Structure formats: C-alpha cells, structure tokens
Amino acid sequence: MNIDLKGKHAVVCGSTQGIGRESALKLSKLGASITLVARNEEKLKAVLKELEPNAKNDYIVADFSQPLELDRKIKEWANKNNAHILLNNTGGPKGGPIRKAKIEEFNEAFTNHLICNHILVQALYPGMKKEGYGRIINIISTSVKQPLDGLGVSNTIRGAVANWSKTLANELGQYNITVNNVLPGATNTVRLQSIAENKAAQSTGLNYEEILGSMAAQSPMKRIAQPEEIANAVAFLASPAASYINGINVPVDGGRTKSL
Predict the structure, then answer these.
(1) Do residues 229 and 252 make contact, with C-beta atoms less than 8 angstroms apart?
(2) Which one, of 138, 149, 169, 145, lies nearest residue 246 by Cα?
(3) Which residue has the higher pLDDT, 227 or 201?
(4) pTM > 0.70
(5) Which of 76, 102, 197, 226 has a CA 20 to 30 Å removed from the CA of 187?
(6) C-alpha 62, offset from chain centre
(7) What percent of the chain shows pLDDT beyond 90?
(8) How high is the pLDDT of residue 228?
(9) Can you give the C-alpha Rg of the chain in angstroms?
(10) How far apart are the first and last CA of the chain?
(11) What is the dihedral of CA 254, 134, 80, 45, to 10 degrees?
C-alpha cells in the first residue's frame, strides 16, 4: 500500500497545536514538504523546526477571523507554488446551547470555518488540477452525524462545511482531486480542555477531571483520543492509497457515534 508522500506538498492549517500540528508532523515524516498556517508566528517557527528537513518547508501567518488577509496571503503563495494536499483545520466555536447563541457567534464561526476553507480551496485547487493530484481534507466533527449537546453553533456550522465538502467532491473528482472529512471524537486538545473547563465552571456538579472521565466513558474504548490518532487518518486520506475514497465522512471517535 502506497502512503509515500515524497514529492508532495501539504498546506496544513491550525498547525501549531493539537490535530493540526500532529498532522503536519505525520505528513512530513511520510516525505511531504509542509506549509504551516496559523496566526502565531513564534509557534509556527517552533513547529517548523520539528518537521523533517526540507528546503520547501515554510509557513504563512494568517488569522482566520480576517478572511481578506488570508485570501491575499494564500494567493501570493499559490502564485509561486503548487499544493497537492490541503488540511482545513481551525479551532471550533465556543460551546453553549443554541437557543442562547448570538448572531455574531454564527457569523464568526461561518467565517472561520466555511469561508476560510473556501478561500483556501479556490486558491489551491488549480495547482492540484495542474499536478493531477489533490487531497482536500477537512477536520470537522462527529456532530455532522449526531449533534452534540451544548455545542449548538458548532453543530450548525459543521453541517454546512460537510455539505460544502460533498459538493466540492462531486465537482473536483474528475480532476483526481478528492475531498473528504475527518470527524474526530473527544480528543486531547486545547479545545477539549476548554470545553471541560467551561462545563465545570457552569456548576454541573462535576469537576474538570470528572467531566473528562464522562467524555471518555461515551466511547466504547473508554478513553479520549490522542491528536496523533486523528493525524493517522489524515495521512491515509492524503496518500496515493486513498485514490478512490472521495466525498465521505470518516469518524475517528472510538465508536462513540451511534450510527454508521
């Protein structure tokens, strides 16, 4: 099975921590050169040093709350480079019941997730088409199959991204560009820790550790995932071995989701 990524270039978003960072490291170990994308330049420089040595490794400093800035920077990069792999990944919106969500929360999440994903795809897919190889992978959530309690805005926006992704898969498949979604379950990231802290602060009767324990108990495997386990799914979908896998959602949740 061919999962060798030598000669391929990957643009990895949200790559200074969690799933994005682990995915960048995994793709780098498989031979890809990497362009890291995040808003904190110091953290980008630190992750850049962790990648396998490659003259084409670089980074783009971009804040996804500023889509026009992202648009300008990714177009500048794409004018000089071609990407074979794009990992769309950014931190999710804050939790809370949907009935209390503010309009601004929906607008912000829609911009950070769908609009910025779209900007990146529009800039990079022509290069993928030219190269005859494209892998667009979106980190979203198991909520597209089963909405998660207390994550009203996230449930809504993730669903929009999933349908955007499926539509893209239908359009781009003819160019040997696949578009797939990875749906992480509870994963040991800063976001999960923040969600647990917020729930503990809301006087749920459970402390931080107990909340993490309850999250772990929802999976048949009785534990929370590590970011590198999600990165393994990303790496496979990015590889030549996944050449005929297109337009699907891949839950990586230890079996937590109640449907296939």
Answers:
(1) yes
(2) 169
(3) 227
(4) yes
(5) 102
(6) 15
(7) 81
(8) 97
(9) 18
(10) 25
(11) 10
Question: Do the beta carbons of residue 94 and residue 105 sit within 8 Å?
Answer: yes
Please name every residue paired with 96 in a beta bridge, in sequence order, or none if there are none. 151
Give me the sheet containing 249-252, strands edge to edge: 58-61, 33-38, 9-13, 85-88, 134-139, 177-184, 249-252
Q: What is the mean pLDDT of the chain?
A: 94
Q: What angle do CA 117, 89, 32 make, to 5 degrees?
A: 100
Beta strand 58-61 with 177-184 is unpaired
Please compute, for residue 136, the number of CA atoms within 13 A of its CA located in the half-sphere on the CB side: 32
Instruction: Please give the full DSSP string across 151-211, using - where no structure is assigned.
Output: BHHHHHHHHHHHHHHHHHHHHHGGGTEEEEEEEE-SBSSHHHHHHHHHHHHTT-S--HHHH
- Contacts for 234 with CB less than 8 Å, ≥ 6 apart: 19, 23, 26, 27, 87, 137, 139, 182
Query: What structural domains and CATH numbers belong to the chain?
Result: 9-185+227-252 (3.40.50.720)
Residue 137: Cβ-neighbour burial (10 angstroms; 0-12, 13-18, 19+):
buried
In this predicted structure, the answer to whether residue 96 has a pLDDT above a threshold of 80 is yes
Tell me which residue of 163, 176, 109, 79 sits closest to 136, measured CA to CA.
176
3-class DSSP assignment, residue 250: strand
**N residues, the chain:** 260
